[in-house]
Amino acid sequence: MATRNFVLTLVFCVFLFGFVVAQPPLNKAEQEAVYGVLESINSAVPWRSVFPDDFCSSAPHGVVCDYLDDDQGGVSAHITELSFGYVSDYSPNPLCAPNATLNGSLFSRFTHLTKLFFYRCFNGKSVSFPDFSSLGSSLEDLVFIENPSLVGSIGRNISNLKSVRKLILTGTNVGGKIPVGIEDLTGLEQLTLSRNNFSGEVFVNFGKLKNLKVLDLSQNQLVGNVPGTLGNGSTELLKLDLSFNGFSGEIPESLKALKSLEFLDLSYNRFGNFGVPLFLGEMSSLKEVYLNGNFLGGRIPEIWKNLGSILGLGLSNNGLVGSIPASMAVNLRNLCYLGLDNNKLEGTVPEEFSSLESVNELNFENNNLSGKVPFTANFVAQIGTKLKLQGNPELCVEDELKSNQFSVATTSLVQLKLCNKKPIVPQYAIFHGDSAPQAHNSHLWLLVSIGFLLLFSL
Predict the structure, then answer these.
(1) Going from the N-terminus, what domains does the chain have, and what CATH number goes with each?
(2) Which keywords accompany this UniProt record (predicted)?
């Protein structure tokens, strides 16, 4: 039995050795292209002497080779992933030097590249965003994160990257208009173009991007109306972030077609004078909604019945008036964060908020709220300094709550005035079943009578 197992093991090893030996080498064109890219991102490293062999047998972390079937029925070796810039000890990709450059023509040799990733590579001299259209139909992930020296614009030929599923460009100085060619990337699942210098109106037909799950255009200089096409086809969309731009007009009702949407952030734009959108009440999948820093105005509507999944809600700095609906607390039972600060809200704080078990921050600062703070000592202990009530001069707190040991660290409660104490009513002795005033009068007449008797006896 032992002999039989030994023979089988030997046969397997011979087979495996033969399989490994039979693997073809990386072709010279791709080998040279890898050297070219490595030397462009960090010329101080002698890449050719450190990695003199086939990159498919020995390569720095981040350079991935794979063996793929070719058109002739055989197998060929190709570079499939290139990742540069230190991310963590678990991803020690080749470091980028301050003088790193980026030549788009170098990538034309990578006919099977699926992933191209740059993290904090371009921090020195300006580097123009290259033309990657030569990569053809193989590329799936094109990612640039925290590259402030990357400048230029994205050309319409970006539409040649037909297989791209993830296009991420964040933390750069790439600008200009967002090219309409992006709408031709119909397989796109994530489009993140945040924290760049993109400007002007957005004319992309998002209705064509039916597989899109994440759209993040935040922190640019985009203006005009939100494209109404956002609700026409992107039914898979889970996250929409257009915050910190200059979008104006009305928040389009077409967004309510995004039935799967969980995260919506339209904060710090110029939406105005149309109130909090009523159609939000129909978007039952929402978990986070942030509309801070606009000019919505109006009252907080009663739209919370079907929004029990919401964890975070931000309506700060919107010119909202009227009272805070108790229905918010009644229906938003999973609420963790609520921001209503810097509005013109008035009336009392609904006591229903004190029954929210999952909440860890309530911000009602700088409104015109009044009356007694309804929260219990246990609720205050739960939230601590995240219970923000200052800036409401007519709000008051009971002495017992303010002096509670848990309230000491809660600055907003310390700053609030004490609620008025009840006036002390004097207690009178009651004689022979008479009322207090009658007893008082009888006692007074008795004193007067005694005085007269003393006076006439003199």
Answers:
(1) 272-422 (3.80.10.10)
(2) Glycoprotein, Leucine-rich repeat, Membrane, Repeat, Signal
